Amino acid sequence: MPKASLEAVQAFLPKESQPWKLRWAEDFQGIPDATKREAAKLLGMRPEDISLTATTSSGLQVIAQGFPWESGDEVLAPLGEFPSNVWPWKALAARGVSFREVPLWEGHKSGVEAWNSSPPPPEADAETRLLDAITDQTRVLALSWVRFQDGLKLDLPWLGSACRERGVHLVVDGIQAVGTHKPDLTGVSAFATGGHKGLLAPQGLGFLWTDAEFRALLAPVGTWLSVEDGTNFARPSTDFQRDWLADGHRLEPGSPSLLACVALKASLACLNGAEDGAIEPHVQSLQGSLLEAISGDPTWGMEAARLQGLREEDRLGPFLSFHHQGRGPEFLNDLLQKGFSRGIYASVREGYLRIAFHGMHTEADVDRVAAWIIG
Ligand SMILES: Cc1ncc(COP(=O)(O)O)c(C=O)c1O
Fold first, then answer.
1. 239 alpha carbon to ligand 1 midpoint, in Å?
2. Which residues line ligand 1 (CB under 6 A)?
3. Which of 88, 90, 113, 295 has a Cα at 20 to 30 A from 74?
4. Which structural domain range is residue 205 located in?
5. 241 and 358 co-located in one domain
6. Ligand 1 atom closest to Cα of 57?
């Protein structure tokens, strides 16, 4: 978390212990509204299309539960999505909605076979495979903008436009890239994220962006804040003759955590304060330096070349996913532990060592990471 976010939480905490000091317009309404404005600014979209949600999962659940499904409908997804983008759709089985996964490249595997998967090559044509898999039953294509294990970044405007042409809704789990990369939401119906990765906020609050026409299709979540005049106490709260709100409130869960909002708001403001679009090339440049530094390494040279190819094709998000190349979990975990002992915190998922960069990292960090990897 940025220092500014920690300070914002500290400044707000006394109000939580003396809640009579909370002001209605300025705090209860003003803080969430300002958080949404920052979120909208980050995406380059409208604040009224933002809903504050606890997590990525809860944003996706709102869509899964609210969409007007008919029995026989299908949700399509890339093979091996993070479970947040699988269980909300699988939970619809009892309503006759099926969930189908599409391998994105030759040799792509997941589940119990995940460690035996080959990694994505630079020439992977994941988008064409996904679009070719659409059938007359497909209502939603649900995918991660950047995949959690192999780090492949999918082309949102290409998929969004093609989905629109086919009458399919593109629903995006954006958590692995938002904050470092700016999404182009052309043709996208929904974009969900938690706040605790690239958005640099604590766990427990994120947001969901929805296209206004798509949102109108969704059943409202049904809370006292998702109807007109919900906070107008001059009108009896028990007057239930009200319209649902059309904006992002329609999909929100009730009273927001103001404490989480002040942190997310400050983190988003910090990201928005960076020169427009400056974080992404900075991250790409650090990635390039790391790959260059280890290109001659006998263990990692081949992976560095594959990742360099993906980087040149603009296929990477904020992290480099080094495939284990048959070396197995013990090898990667051993390396990970050696990193921890040097104060380098990377992670291992499904056969990949993930090394992430953000705006705060420097070339000096790259040198430390390279020295660790090369050993
Ligand atoms: C692609 C992806 N989606 C979602 C999540 C997290 O989901 P949630 O915000 O629901 O905890 C993660 C990782 O934690 C992830 O890698």
1. 38
2. 55-57, 82, 84, 144, 148, 173, 175-176, 194, 206
3. 113
4. 3-273
5. no
6. 10
Please indicate, yes or no, whether residues 167 and 23 belong to a single structural domain of this protein.
Answer: yes
User: What span, in angstroms and rounded, lies between the C-alpha atoms of 236 and 11?
Assistant: 34
178 and 50 within one domain: yes
DSSP code, position 208: E
What residue's CA is closest to ligand 1, atom 11?
55
Closest CA to 64 of 16, 104, 31, 98: 98
When divided into structural domains, the chain yields a total of 2
Quote the ligand 1 centre to 81 CA distance (angstroms): 10
Task: Indicate which CATH number applies to the domain containing 344.
Answer: 3.90.1150.10
| Alpha-carbon distance values, 72 to 137, 171, 327, 363 (Å) | 7, 19, 43, 52
Q: Using the atom order of ligand 1, give the atom closest to the CA of residue 194.
A: 9
Q: What is the pLDDT of residue 139?
A: 98
Cβ(131)–Cβ(303) below 8 Å? no
In whole angstroms, what is the distance from residue 112 CA to residue 202 CA? 32
Q: Which residues of the chain have pLDDT under 50?
A: none
Q: Do 287 and 244 share a structural domain?
A: no
Say how many C-beta atoms besides its own lie within 10 A of residue 320's C-beta: 26
Q: Whose CA is nearest to atom 7 of ligand 1?
A: 56
Name the burial class of residue 37, with classes exposed (0-12), middle (13-18) and buried (19+) by CB atoms within 10 angstroms of its CB: middle
Residue 112's Cα: distance from chain center in Å? 24
Check residue 276 and give its pLDDT.
85
Same domain, 267 and 298: no
Count of CB atoms situated within 10 Å of the CB of 226:
21
Of 232, 250, 273, the one marking the end of a domain is 273
Report pLDDT for 59: 98
Give yes or no: residues 31 and 170 share one domain: yes
**26 and 167 assigned to the same domain:** yes
Q: What does DSSP say about strands 74-78 and 138-144: parallel, antiparallel, or unpaired? A: parallel
* Model pLDDT for residues 291-343, shown as the tens digit of each residue: 999 999 999 999 999 999 999 999 999 999 999 999 999 999 999 999 999 99
Strand 188-193 relative to strand 169-173, pairing: parallel
Point out the domain boundary residue: 273, 293, 327. Answer: 273
